[in-house]
Amino acid sequence: MPGTDDPPAGGPTLELLVHGVGGTTPAEMLDDPRTVRVAGDGVAAVFRRADDVDAERAGRAGRTGAGTTEDGAPVPPVQEAYVWCNLTSGNGSRALWLLLLPFMVVNLAHWMRPAARGDGRAVRLHGTLVRLAGLSLTVLLVAAACEVALDLTAWQCAGTPACVASHSWLAFLTDGWWSAPGRRLALAAVVPTALTVLLWYLSHRTWSAYESQQPLAGAGRDEHGDDAPLGRPGFWYGRRLVARLRAAHTAAALLTVAAAVSADAARHDRAEGGPALLALSGGLLEAALAATALTVVWVVCRRGRSERRVDHALDARLRRALPLGSAALLLLAVVYACWSRPGWRSAGPLAGDAVFGAVFLAQGLLVVALAAVARTLHRSRPDARAALRGLAGPAVALLACALGGVMSGGVAQRVADWLDGRSGALAGPPVVLTWQASVIPGLLAVVLSLLVVLAHRAWRSVRDEIPAVLRDHPGEPHDPVRVRGVARVRALAALTDRAPLLVGVAAAVTFLLGAGALAGALGTGRAPADAARNAPVAVAGLAEVAQAIGSWLIGLGFVLFVTFGRRAYRDASARRTIGILWDVGTFWPRAAHPFAPPCYAERAVPDLTWRMATWTASTGGRLVLSGHSQGSVLAAAAAWQLPAPVRARVALLTYGSPLERLYGRWFPAHFGPEALHRLHQEVDCWRNLHRRTDPIGGPVLVGDADTTTPPGGPPCSSVDREPLKDPLSLGRTAAHPLPSPVLGHGDYQADPVFAEERAALLARLPKGLPAPRHGDDGQDTAQPGSGRSSG
Q: For this UniProt entry, which segments traverse the membrane (predicted)?
């Protein structure tokens, strides 16, 4: 640490532990109830055992790795635990982020682009298309709120005496000043406007906390001036883009509300030959709304991420002008709608079919264009392991749009059923939403059939796994039931590798059925059951059943979303489950949607990078970065962010790691074979532990195959060790008198191989790293990233 005496010969040794998804406690990570926070805050922090707080200053050989114990065993390193779980799942209110799931999923699609060769035009086009898909989801969400508040409630129900009689709280809208249709719409506009303000507030608050973390100076660049994909200086600093997108999406939401309030009034003024001034005002307002909407699209398309430099600019004028201008247009729309029109009556639905049909059509065209770009990128640098041959991004973007449609249709259908009851007095939600709901049973039938096929294949593969289990435990006593149980765990763990097939089939069926539903809605203008009345009896009956089941399922889906969100707010275990979802889904920065849940890695990666760089600079010690599961992804990202000389002095130990099995396949541009091979070359040494019973972790597939660790240290030409035995013993033995558990994804540190690999990494790291240089005032003059190396 700065200002301390020189470290003892050999230097201190440190193991920095990073936990995985779901979170844990410092006491569990360090296996000691007495822990002390040495850096950080209540959200994310580094902890040590109480006995190790001053280990470097005291120079205790027994805790710093500068010697051996009395029995000659290697001294374990000082351990630090980086606890980051509160970044994602520490607050009960964050369970409500479940409602932002479509935004999170479309943001993932941005990062799923294939690795590319050549100029960046196709890469930029890929990002632009995903950002436009994200913008369409914002419009869809706000349009759904307008459908519920303006169309179903203020326009249809408040304009129907039978509906008002069933809902007395709407009685004040039937008489007096508020009885005019435009004024009812203006009052109802408070709901979608409040939703927009809430989304803006959440995005702004998290932007101030997450996107404002300063990266380490000199991050990522190697001695040749190049940079790794996740090591670029501005990769974890997306402050400018999120601010820009937030302004554009907020403006788009407000413009959607303004159009919903004023559209029918403008149509009435044109059609009924009303006062010329009103007709002119309506035309000018619509022109202003269209011009501002085009400006929003231009802002979304104009600028993507700035990763190769830390961009501190914030486009202050744009951030203020675009939302405020849209808010002013909304206010003008409200005034325009409230103007007195004696002959105006609310009859039938508003123009929901045209709006939702246009949104769904635009989303389909964007997905098709995105698929063409992704395929072009994949062909420029083919990757046999890439999910769906480079089409993972378009598939996930399509599923995000479908999820947004389900949530929009679900809330509209439930509110319509609640308002109308069984009277049938209301026109109900837009026909296009009914058609979209009617195809859900077909989609579920296909997906469930595929799941049954995959489960059957897994069951059949259990027999093939039994000989492999026996080979891994030669000569051990065993029970056939126990062996079959272990084989079953292995077979189920292998199902993770079938995820691309499931996503690909679901996306393809969703696209075909969604396109058919959109064509049916726009072609007939009626619900499926009504459109099929003149068809054969079998077809008409199938259409009626599909419509009824689809309506029920889409409503049930929305109810489940709300119910699970409320349960997670009150139940810690359910909140932890949602936390795991966010741990996986919010690793990536917000690049496509500013209202998505925030990226915790924009806080965690700078935390780890700063800690490693400052510790190595101040002590000259040896450091092993040890990451489990999602923690291994954070560890790799932090290692990429280190200045090249510091990165070369760090050893990496990963276990249960999804780096290649999940991230390498789904995010090939950033975790593909080339990126992982480069990380292997740039750290001092990297070792990876995995099990065949682990459904998440797997081999990294970098370097030569390896079976053992030689006494002098690991062969760093390879990364993966042979799969660990799991369980440690099939039957009862002298070493294992009680049955050994099948550990799967957890408790890697309980395996003796873990301590062996860690000790070998420490033994291989150079000893006697330079001590900190002191100036005349006794303070350390070395800075993180200064380039000092052991040579």
A: 95-112, 132-150, 185-202, 247-266, 278-300, 321-342, 354-374, 386-412, 432-454, 501-525, 545-565
